Structures are given as C-alpha cells and as structure tokens.
Predict the structure.
Amino acid sequence: MNVGEKLIEIIAREQHLNPGDISIDATFEELGIDSLDGVNILFALEEEFKIDIPDTVAQNMKSVRQVAESLNRVLEGKDISDLTAMAKGSGPTASN
Amino acid sequence: MRRVVITGLGIFSSTGKDRDSFFENLVQARSGVRPISQFDSSPLSIKIAAEISDYNPDDYFPPKRQDMLDKFTQFALIAAGEAMESSGLTVRDEERCRFGVVMGSGMGGAGSYDAGYHNLYAKQVTRLHPFTIPRIMHNAATSHICMEFGAQGPALATATACSSSGHAIGEAFHLIKFGMADMVLAGGADAPITYGVMRCWEAVRVLASGNGNPATACRPFSADRKGMVIGEGAGVLLLEELDHALGRGATIYGELAGFGMSSDASHITQPSVDGPVRAIRMALGEAGVRPEEIDYINAHGTGTRLNDSVETQVIKEVFNCHARKLAISSTKSMHGHVMGATGAIELVATVMAINRGVIPPTANYTEQDPECDLDYVPNVAREKRIRAALSNSFAFGGLNAVLLLRRWE
C-alpha cells in the first residue's frame, strides 16, 4: 500500500465514505470536506504516521493529491515500509 | 402585551424517551435510577444514577454526525426533535429570523472533557482531537438545534448549574414577550454520568448511594432522605407568541405567564430562604397571579437534607396558610437531578400535569420530617384540576429561577 492509497483509506474512514468513491485527483470541495473536516483528517494522518504536519503546510492542502505530495515530503527519511499495520481508528468516539 | 404559550414538548430521560412514556412512568411512580452502566463504577462509593437505558447513538445519528456531538448535544437534538414534531410547526423561510433557541447546560460536554483529559494525562498523548472544542462548548446544543431546525433569530446558552434550563426558558419567554422573537425552542441538556464528574459529585457528599436499591435512593422531603441522584437527559419546549400559535391553529399546552429570578448572594452551595422567596414573588408578580391561585408546585426537591427543609420554609413564607392547601411534588425522586436539564424536564412534567389533570407524586416517601410538613403528594399520583403552577429551580451558586404556568382554557 502506497502513501496515496493509505491516505484515501484514512479520508474514507474519517469522512465515513467508500474508499472507491475517492479519486486521487478529487478536491476537498468535491468530497464535501470542509475546513473542520480537513483539520480532523490532518489529525488522523499525524496519529497514523506519527508525524507533525506544520500549520503552514496544512493550510495549503485543498485536494487529495496535494495532501499525498505534502505527506510524501514530510515522510521523507521516515520508515514507512509498514503503512498497513499502522494504528487504526483515531476518531473522537474511539477514545471515549 | 404579547403573551407566550407552550406549543411543543420534548423529553429524553431515564424515565422515558418521549413525553408520553415519561409522564406515564412518573404517574406510576416508576424510578429511572439504576446501576451505572456507562463506565466501571466499582471504585466509586456512589454506583447509581438516573441513566437512560440502552442508549445507542446509532439509533439517532449517522456516524459522521456523531463525531461532532457530545452526548449532551445528542440528547438536546433528540428532545428538540420531539418538541418540533409535537408542535406541528413549519417555519417559513421569511420567519427564520423570528425563530430562536435558548438551551441550558450545567456541565456541557463533560464526557468529551473526560475522554480528552484521560488521553492527555493518563495516556500521555501530545495532541487532542480537533473536534474536542466544538464538542465540549456549552453552546453546542443551542448551535446544533439552530442548524437542525433553521433557527436564525436570537440564540444563546445559559450555564447556571441546576437552574440552567429554568433560566433558559425564562429568557426565551422574555425574548418573545418583549418582541425579539415569535418562536423559541428552549430547555436544557446534560450528560454528567462520567467517571470524572461522578468523582467530583462524590466529593461534595450530597449523593444518595441507594444501599443496594437504586430505585428508592432519592427520597425528597422524606425524613429518611439521604441525598440526590445524578441524572442525564434533555427537555425542550417550543414557546410561541400567542397570536402566532392561534394563527396556525396550534395545540396550546399552557401559558408561560411569569418568570422570577434572584441571587442568594450568600453562600456558594448552601441555599437561602430569602433568594427563592424573591424569585417566586417575582414570577407571581409578572403573571399577575395571586398566591392562592397556585394549585401545584413542581419543587426543586433534590432530596438533600438542606434543600428540602429550606424549600419548605420558602413555600411557607410566600404562601402562608395556602402553603398547606397546594400540592407539592418532586419528580426528581424518579428522573433524578438532571443538572442543567432538570428545570426543563420538570416544566414538561408540570405542563402535562396541568393538561391531564394528574399530579405526579413524590416517589419513595416513607415518613414525615418535622421540617418538611407540607403536602408532597407522597407515592401516589393525584387527580387535580390545576389553575396555575410553579416550577422551581435553585442552583448551587445561589442562582434561582422560577417559572409560572397558567392553564390554557
């Protein structure tokens, strides 16, 4: 599983969408992802990949591909060979 | 002068998940107090609460929506939905700015606070979920109700502990009476049955343990009363300007005729006689109702030693010899003390008592306390025609809210 596929899986989980309905070229607007949803997805990515996504990077993410590219830059030098096995479920209800 | 009537009722509580089952259970003196099931209460000395049985948010909200809603907001939305459904109101686009919402809550998103702090301190996480703030904020219930029903008029939230929804409904009443709105959804919601909140209340030493029998734990005005029982849920009423209600042929459940509020300004937890007396007199004065016309008081009646004897003194001081003729009951004996929702839940009980001509009893009453020597409608519901009634809310912090309802003929 590459970063793009993992990203789509996370977006689908957080937005309660079907991963098959999310194209790598889809914009957040097309997917109905508003600014608060965006923050939620960033939080999920930070939890999954154990990374920090700086606010300056986060503010420019408007499409799935943009996020995937930013994610690849942040992940450079980080061991991501086992993406599939990384933590599952970081939604707010999961921790209640 | 604009008059304000009640045209919608919604309840979600331990004694009923809708208004009819709620009132029927109260009339049958059935308690909603049970062992806590939401978390492991074994380390606590108090292991009971008036908990809503078998609550599953999936029955009410899709998963995506649940992410954004603390349980207190979920309860608020469910009760508001029933209030709207029972009112038959369809709000036209051009009157959305005349449609408001005022909701009270004592604890706000207590469960989300608890979960967040557990993650922060116990699990040592370094970042909290980004929905934490929108979930915990006290105005979340008000805002979500506004969005759900398209209310774009005056909207606010009250936080006056156990008087929160009494104040919310009183403020909503005045918004309509003084011309700022024509329709307002008003009430309160709380979901305080969490490990952290129960530990806080345990420390105050005002909770009844039930000694193995949860249903009889809360015994307001009875000589053997041991304290209060925490409850959860929501109550929401639709208040409407009289001509607006008449114009659409609405069913009118009663007239909200008076609101009194006062501050004890004396002690942060101990109630005074003077503060509540002034609040009741203010409500009577606004409604233009003589004390002798009050036939029923839904008491604050928490079941603590101090509240119930002080409230009895209050009623004697305001009503003199009429205090022995009017009926008083505490429905908290069954639905528990639902914090910021309790005033709204009790006002719904009062409205239904007037409409159906039946006063729900004070459950679990066993013996008279010399300091509580009025008619508390012990254990058995009573048929009675009610002309006017009061609903009392007296909060920690000494902030009192009294609502006066008049029968609608």
